[in-house]
Amino acid sequence: MLLSVSLSGIAVAAAPGQLGLDERINNAVSPISSAIARVVFYTVPVAGADLPLIVVWLIAAALIFTMSMGFVNISGFGHAIDIVRGKYDSHSNGPGEVSHFQALTAAVSVGGPGATFWMILAGLLGMSTKFVECTLGVKYRRENPDGTVSGGPMFYLSRGLAERGLGGLGTVLAAIFAIATIFGSLGAGSMFQSNQTVSQLVSMTGGAAGPLASYKWLLSVVIALVVGAVIIGGIKSIARVTDKLVPFMAGLYIFGALAVLIANAGHIPEAISSIFSGAFSPQGITGGVIGVLIQGMRRATFSNEAGIGSAAIAHSAVKTDRPVTEGYASLLEPFIDTVVICTMTALTLVVTGVYTNKDLSGVTMTSAAFDSVVPGFSWLVTLAVILFAVSTIITWSYYGSKAIAYLTNENRGAILAYQVFFLLATVIGATMDLNSIIDFSDSMIFTMSIPNIIGLYLLMPVVKRELNAYRADLRAGRIQRTG
Questions:
Q1: pLDDT tens digits, residue range 430-461?
Q2: Nearest CA among 60, 106, 137 for reference residue 236
Q3: Could you tell me which of 316, 327, 307 has the C-alpha nearest to residue 467?
Q4: Residue 138: strand, helix, or coil
Q5: Contact 41, 302 (CB under 8 A)
Q6: How many helices (H) and strands (E) does the chain have?
Q7: Which residues pair with 98 in a beta bridge?
Q8: Domains of the chain listed by start with CATH number
Q9: Which of 48, 306, 374, 456 is deepest in the core (most CB within 10 A)?
């Protein structure tokens, strides 16, 4: 029997005993991917559970930034909402290309009920990390001759550390971050997202026997065309799409989740109780409390990317002459993504009981929870998944483009070549099984956190000075509300 993979409508066949194209790619990349993943996701045994050190790296940073910034994740929450609502737009006349809200939306992709508690805690701490990295992203961004701006960890690592006499270290860290961003964007930002989108559509229309099963390549081409049409216009075009797409996506999903929770209102107190009790006395979870803590923390860090540094690239394009204002705006991201949406998801899974079904996982579990209220309601989940995936692909294309721009000193040819390759990866990823590529890109995304957080620690005093000066101006009335 012949093995075949459909790639952009062309059947790539392999005779018996031969490997298909995706298998050959997997076999070629697998040794490299496995070696890097073993280093990046290195674990140590703790109380019977495997603790990934990269999670400790991210959570420890979040805790340190929360304390050093005076719990800005809590004290600055109300002011962050005011900034995003445009109540302090008098400081939005600086260099930049998009509003605070547009920058926010451009950056916004279970171990039992108890994991939810630790997930919320990690999300709250991650707000402080986002504050630090996005403040620095704006402060050290570069204004280009054509009026655009380039920012993010590449620039605060190189420029910021140079100010502190650590230019050599900054250059190396910035290069590592940029290279990891490029590889991460192609795999997890493009291939994986298009694959999940197409797979969800095929699954919802009958699976392998459904009408879309033979048209994966066509679906992937449509996704690539949509993404290409958006990214051609740069960050302004991306922001115009995401500032409409993200709120609609989030609103749609929240509507569905609320419907599930209202239909199961009587079970909510019990679900909340199980979340708290499960956080400290979990039953049947490997590693006990430590095991469930790890699951919640890991899910939160994977969800909001606080400490990865990616969001600072998008936030750097904001129109403002006070970097700390974008730091405030950005701390809402982990709150919306992890504390609100992920918590609502966890509650729907618990109140409906689907989390106990071992045959379900990921999107299929959430779909089952939605369908338990209204048959066919899972289409809301499907639509939300598609919108999320498309917005993620669009945003990661921008991250990768800026990483290329940094490494090539804004060479337009190199940027265009990357964007074309990115779109090709979107098509390839939807039609092929490239587990090794995805593992490699996941490793690259978390590799980004290593140089990024080193830089955040070294530049933490800069952020503290910016924050203190801004708060002093607020108290003195030198910063006025505009609405």
A1: 776 666 677 777 788 889 999 999 999 999 99
A2: 106
A3: 327
A4: helix
A5: no
A6: 23, 6
A7: 318
A8: 52-476 (1.20.1740)
A9: 306
